[in-house]
Design goal:
25% helix, 168 residues, globular, 27% strand, single chain, 7 strands, Aminopeptidase, alpha+beta
């Protein structure tokens, strides 16, 4: 999401960039608050909070920050999915602050993650959510994901009850 020239009276656009070490604390705090606000805090791997750059430093993984008006307003990434074929990546830790929701930033973030995942050699993108996260389900549908009847691999999020897969 490259920055676009501002138009008087227009809402500023978001931009995407790779995560930096200096972002870790802010992402950890915001991710926890965002997930708690939607009653999905149990989806977090709490031992990873505040360690985004370390978690996504593994091979074939990446995390991107959504910036809005000079501050972190969201993020998301992907990486290998434990217990799955090596050509399947898992979308993870996707979140946006309320003030940037509904502007297309989530869709652009997901698409960006999947383009980079394809360049890393993945052929399928996987995501899982709780059934109560209706906006996330709608986003995955718009992004071309198909609903599965059972999980793929071992994400460690045992309470998720909706699973999605997309060919890249």
């Amino acid at each position: 999401m490259p920055d676009k020239p501002e138009v008087a009276g227009a809402t500023p656009r978001c931009s995407l960039r790779p995560v930096a070490h200096a972002d870790d604390a802010a992402i950890g705090t915001s991710l926890a608050q965002t997930y708690e606000a939607v009653a999905a805090g149990h989806l977090l791997r709490r031992h990873e909070l505040g360690r985004t750059t370390v978690v996504y430093a593994q091979p074939r993984a990446a995390y991107f920050v959504v910036s809005h008006c000079g501050r972190i307003a969201g993020g998301g990434g992907f990486g290998p999915l434990a217990g799955a074929r090596p050509e399947v990546c898992e979308l993870r830790d996707l979140w946006l602050l309320p003030e940037v929701r509904g502007r297309g930033a989530a869709f652009e973030l997901v698409e960006h993650c999947l383009v980079v995942a394809l360049a890393f050699g993945y052929r399928h993108g996987y995501a899982e959510i709780l059934h109560t996260l209706r906006p996330a389900a709608a986003l995955l549908g718009r992004a071309g994901f198909s609903v599965l009847n059972q999980p793929v691999g071992r994400s460690g999020r045992y309470l998720c009850d909706r699973w999605y897969l997309r060919d890249l």
